[in-house]
Amino acid sequence: MTEWQALFEGSRMVPPHSQSVRLAEELSQGFQIALKHLDGASIVQRLLEEPQGVQYQLRVSLFDISHRHFFGRTWKSPLLQQTRTGLGQPDRVPFNEVLFFHTSLRHPSMVAVVEAVAVTQKADGSQRALGCGFGILRLFSSKTSPGEPHGDQADRRLNLYHGSPRALLHPTLHEPIEQNKLMTLIEGAHLQCSLKPHPALEPAMRFLPPNTLVSGAESIPGVVPSCGDTADSLRKPRLLKSFTCYLDKLSLTLYPSLEKFEEELLQLLNADHLNRRSWGPDGNAVVIQERRLHVGVHNGWGFLERPQVVVVEPSAEGGRGRSSSFRRGSLSRLSSPAAHVLALRSRLQLKEMANHPAFGIIFQLEYVFSAPVVGDGKVSSTSSFPRTAFMQCLRWAVWCPFQEPGNVGADVTLALQGGDVLGPSGVMVYAAPPPDRSSTEVKDVERGTVKFRFSSRADGRSPSPASSLKNRQEDTSRDKKPPSPSKGRSEAVLRASPPQSPQGPGLSMSQLAASPRYRTISHSTLSPWQQQFPSQLCPSPLASAYQLSHIELPCASGIAHLEVNLSQPGESPREEQLRELTFAPVHAPVTALGTQTPGVTSSLSRSSMAHLFSVGFPEIVDLSGQVAEVLDPAEPVNFNPQREEADHLQCNELVLQFLAFSRIPHEGMNADWPTSVYFTFQLYRFPPVTTQRMTLLAAEKPEKKSRAKRPCVLALIDKDGTVSSGCPGLQLKYLVDPGFLKPGEHRWFLRYLALHTLQIDVWDSESLLLIGSAAVELKHALRQGRPAVQVTQELEVITTEYLQDAMLLSRDLPGHGATAAINAFTAVKGRLHLRLGNVGHPADQNQKRSKTLPPVRSHVITAHDGTRGFGGGSLSSRSVSSLNARNASRAQRLVEIDGELASLLHGRMKEVGVAAGRVERETEEARRRKLERMAAVRRYEEQGLVGGQAKPNIMGRREERLQHSRDLQLIEAYRERSKGESITSMLSKAITTQHTLYATLGTAEFFEFVLKNPFNVQQTVAIESEDPELSVIMNCGEWRHFKNLTRTMTPLEEDMFHLKETTLTPQVYLRPKEAVHIPLKYQTFTSEHAVITQQPANMRGGRNANVAQKHQSNTVQAKTIKVTFRAEDGKPLAICQVDVEPTPHVIDQTFRFHHPELTFLKKAVRLPPWDSLPGTPVGGGEATPQVHVRCSDPNVICDTKRAAPGEPQDVFLKVAGGQSPQIKKFFIMVFTDEWLAAPAQIWQVYVHFLQRVDVSCVAGQTTRQSLVLKGVQALRKVKCHTSHPEEIQIDPSAVFVLPPNTVQDLQIGVRPGKAGSKFVYLNVVDVEYHQLVASWLLCVSCRQPLISKAFEIFLPVGGGKGSNKKITYTNPYPNSRAFLLSSDHPDLLQFKEDSFQIKGGETYTIGLRFAPSRCAGTEEILIYINNHEDKNEETFCVKVQYQ
Description:
Elements: H1 3-10, H2 18-21, E1 29-39, E2 55-64, E3 69-76, E4 92-103, E5 110-121, E6 127-138, E7 156-161, E8 185-197, E9 214-215, E10 242-253, H3 258-277, E11 287-298, E12 308-311, E13 313-315, E14 341-343, E15 348-354, E16 360-372, E17 387-399, E18 411-415, H4 440-447, E19 449-456, H5 465-479, E20 507-509, E21 536-537, H6 545-550, E22 560-564, H7 606-612, E23 629-630, E24 637-638, H8 641-645, E25 651-663, E26 676-681, E27 689-690, E28 694-697, E29 712-716, E30 730-736, H9 746-755, E31 757-764, E32 770-777, E33 788-804, E34 823-841, E35 860-862, H10 894-897, H11 899-905, H12 907-911, H13 922-944, H14 950-990, E36 992-1000, E37 1005-1012, E38 1019-1025, E39 1030-1032, H15 1036-1046, E40 1057-1059, E41 1066-1070, E42 1075-1082, E43 1119-1126, E44 1132-1143, E45 1149-1156, E46 1161-1167, E47 1188-1191, E48 1197-1200, E49 1209-1215, E50 1223-1231, E51 1241-1258, E52 1263-1270, E53 1276-1282, E54 1288-1291, E55 1296-1298, E56 1303-1310, E57 1316-1326, E58 1331-1343, E59 1349-1355, E60 1363-1370, E61 1377-1383, E62 1389-1391, E63 1395-1398, E64 1403-1410, E65 1417-1426, ...
């Protein structure tokens, strides 16, 4: 038996109760139990026949009192004999044992049960064990906070009780158990013990499963064992050095062949499936959907990290491609004889390997099957069944690479195991061939084999030349950890790193997540107070940057991003699988990162706070002029909805004041960065806001004694570039009154304030680069009956940075499926000082609306029957209001209502030369015609007075009569033609019912139309809608769902509608004089998507400007939709005219992605598991809801797939790229209800498209590259800015003129200080209009130069003084040369001279000064010696040991 097998067999344990796991804390905590001595052991002598030679033992187990469940494993102490302490003293057994364990089940019901056992030797050599009693050690108390042990850390006397610990399983034992009458105390017997936390166990937690009791003397692979009999390896654990290993050319062979094996397996599964369901053969059989392989590192106790899951594909043995006839997820068995093995084409990387015989690699082969599902055992007549997927483990194997020497770099062949052999995964395994079938060698082959090539970095070599650089970087990073106490050859102590996500087929998750605090707000029509709502809003925890970049637990993950291959599962192209795009950065959501907690105090000193509030910011006052009540952001907010409803000040004026910005020094940035900023955000349904540019005013007299810098006050910048002379800061006001809100929306607005955070993006107004994002909780803006409130907060501005340890090009990797991993972490770029206020105002009585909607009238529309009086075309002088205002129509002249007819009637006057002019309006044309006729009459009368002109006058009169007759005929023809249309229009108005909807993006607006059959015969009515967004609800379940949401108490019918065969139009059957309710809904997922330009606001609206506008942005388009109800003869019975009024929507989350232009952006946003959301009841029994997503841009592919219970949900995106520097904006709606009634979350996504440039360079030297800048149509004065000014030099660096339609060369010099890969942003900004002209994404891959010499020095820790050292350098050239000196750690090492010149062959002494360090550890510093062209000549490595 190997060492791994021995540990695995001895470390079996019982898992905790499933209900208790739900109460587990987020992080596990280490503890130690000290068992010192047992007093009163002689009381058991009367129980033994031969008390001589009795030895005692302690056995400790964990027990769950609430569920009467033992879990973990039972620890047993060594056998010891009792000793005499003196006359009159009880007998004592000195155990002096220390137990260690870590757990996240820090609940009062979790206890440790200690049993004392007496062991004697029998005559036959066997042992006899007798229980002497047991005690209950309380681990956690309900009076203390979770994670603290019960009571203090002093020694405790644990009383012992008669009987066996199995008595705790008795159903009559309830809390408190110690006071139960069945528990009998043993007088005079007790155990001296103690319990306290053990933080030093944290680095070794990954090597030990939770809830496992161990002692320091036990073997734990991965932890360095201590020397000596009394040594304890877990008191201050030291870890073995871990490294990365690789598995190449991995393949699995199954007996007798892959095709025969799978064929036999499917026959057994189908036979079992038919026997269970009592089906006949119908062609719907169980098929293989996917073949998976789980690979992980196991140390005998458990997996060090979650095993990786990869997809293996059938392939010809030794071939690279997959079988030509294989199509993943579509075949039940293989049809090609060439597919002999299951192969993995990419390389597997395992990071947590250590040189220990018990470290093993676990392989587990798992098949995913798809089986048909039909209820009640009935066979459908159709061949399309709903199918379900299930997984089954077929084989597993374990291999310990360091059990025997010589395994590194060799080809390995392992025999697979199956059947009743217990594996590390703890699942049932498919049966292996019978054991009596053949010899051992043949049986190993019959079970199957796995082959692979193993290579590692432990032997000093790397699998590929490119990865050797990454080797060096990883080893260097490990050496930077604090060293062990050994003075000799110190080894780096590795801290426990949280487990990373497994890499699947074409999918790798970045290490980013954030956790929401409350369940997301639902925008449904239910009352917001009926949903689950916290009565006390506590401050959200401020997660550190390290935690945010390494969260992977399902209960902590909120939203994460993945790079994913979006090919469908059924696709199997011949091309090789696409690798992850390393230049596509992910995004860290910062919704809950910038708020304070009770344990976090402000970073400002009192003098800085006094300076900040003495500059004269505008005060927030109430209606009476009193200063608003100041709230503490660290205190929880007690929210009472009834108090908000009863407040007489129903108008809320939200005030945002941007006060100051605190700079934080960063490597590679100037000390005065940034010099000016602007902000972008969106509050509630108001339009997105882009503020003006604001400069940072530094303090005139900085504090000399204080290390912290004072915050810089923000001041507005005018159009001419000068600083505004008004009040400092920027103030924005939002007035939310009943005229702004829809009926019943006031409660939703209060819920928005209670649960949402406002995300504010901070931009550098000079370079137009994103500095970071801050988030402020809006719950402090709830007034709770007070006239005005205000709160001042210091928000951290956080951004995501991306670094890669070493340059790994795709050509250096074994296959295109692998790629270099990018380390993404969050960094604090500064602190924003913000004041948030809310001032109450009385509501205007003229605009006051009802707070709630009428439950019936709001969603039930009654049709007009048109039987009321109709005034027709009467010319009565009575007012129209006295008639039936709906059906009345006042007669008008035809020439006044039809301009075309007026122009025809006026044609003769144009022929006689009368200028009629162009017809602008119908009434103006009629008036002009009258004037012309009046003038013609006057001329006729004047001409009639002249003699001899009678005959022409008579002829003119005839012509006029003829023309008039023609006009009458034209009018008659026009009336006949338009009579039918006019009558039809009037009749349509009589049966038309108008209804107004206030539509929001993604939200379904439901209403019912009462349709009545006016005839005495039955009718089949067809329902036709002009717009597909307004549709009939034909599903009864969907209709019931919306009726419950809107509380519509109207009848519901099953199978009410049927489809017309030719047009698929919904139809409903109506009996004579019958009225039915037709369910309709309007829902739109589209919105306007304009290409956005990146620039601050140029128009100055004033610091007190009200930005709440009447016409808001981000809305759907206003439209009018007609729904026609037609009878069997095609004539309409009724018309419902729906007027859609747009309403802006609420933005819950904002994402920004940067991506190369003209390429596809592929992202996946990860949601947390449903049961891990805060506020979800434990054991509620609710099924995991299916998540649905919709995108507002039809050109963006957005999809999600159903996940297994407890698994996170992924939302996949695919966006087509545009030209640089365009910004694409769209919205994503996330639904958690089946019928998509209202989105649970609405995300706003910005995609910045940039020009991509790849730069390959060497650390410590300058690499030149040229960029082409194209001029625009107008002349521009521009300047270049970069996100890393210390590493990127640009020529020209000053402002220059960019002529129109020309080409300008930009020379950039890249000089990184450290090896690795990073993303650098380069913007070209118009300095006059502050607009982005061009933008580049520089993908810098930097490799480390060759190290020619290495040094090691030891420096003391602390003291506040640096150390001076010297090294020599000899000029290898025969002539005189000048050299430049630089370092990759300028904060730790400074040179006496930055440059020197020496003659050929001479030696120069370089003076070094090392900065002091406050903590112990190891650091490697590189010294670059470059020539006058800044090309690297030599590189020295100095390893500094701080002791």
